[in-house]
Amino acid sequence: MSSPSDQAALSGQKLSGEKLEAWASLATLLERLPAALDAQLQRDSDMSHFEHGVLYALDTAPDRTLRMSVLAGYASSTLSRLSRAVTRLEKKGWARRVIDPTDGRFTLAILTDAGHDAVAASSPGHEQLVERLVFDALTAAQVRQLTAISRRISEAIDAAPAWRPPAP
């Protein structure tokens, strides 16, 4: 009896050539980039990349407030993971939670003034690192390709629309 991996190899389903090279490059990027972003933000601002994203989403939301369920969607996160992150942000005084006064079934996450100050202070260093690690190595055409490729892969994983930055 052959194993599933033997059957895949026999049926031609094994990654090879350009696809294997592309996958190896992407898998390496998926390991290295989050670690680099986390390290810089932890060192400079005492927050993770995930927490920075939560703070940024709240900072750009109307009244610096979002329903936790909406914020979880933006963060591509479970409510449980988001709740643990918001608990950490609350302990630092950067966010707070309240029951939605318009619908008590929902909880709102609200960015505090201290949270706004934290994300404002952390963003320049974070953006410089993103610029250096991602965009300095790419042409304008490659940036557009990266956007299109990233969206297509994201949509293949989950058809829900990905978070997009607010219009300027």
Task: Give the topology.
Blueprint: H1 4-10, H2 17-45, H3 49-60, E1 65-67, H4 68-74, H5 79-91, E2 95-99, E3 107-111, H6 113-135, H7 140-157
Antiparallel strand pairs: 1-3, 2-3
Q: Could you give a quick summary of the protein structure above?
A:
Helices cover 65% and strands 8% of the residues. It has helices at residues 4-10, 17-45, 49-60, 68-74, 79-91, 113-135, 140-157; strands spanning 65-67, 95-99, 107-111.
Q: What descriptors fit this protein?
A:
single chain, 168 residues, mainly alpha, 65% helix, globular
What characterizes the major β-sheet? 3 strands, antiparallel
Radius of gyration (Å): 20 Å
Number of helices: 7
- Low-pLDDT residue intervals, each spanning 5 or more residues: none
What do the pLDDT scores average to?
Answer: 90
Helicity range of the residues? 55-70%
- Assign an overall shape: globular
Structural class: mainly alpha
Strand content: 5-15%
The order of strands across the largest sheet is 1-3-2
Q: What distance lies between the first and last C-alpha atoms, to the nearest angstrom?
A: 60 Å
Q: Find the count of extended strands (DSSP E, 2+ residues).
A: 3
Order of helices and strands: HHHEHHEEHH
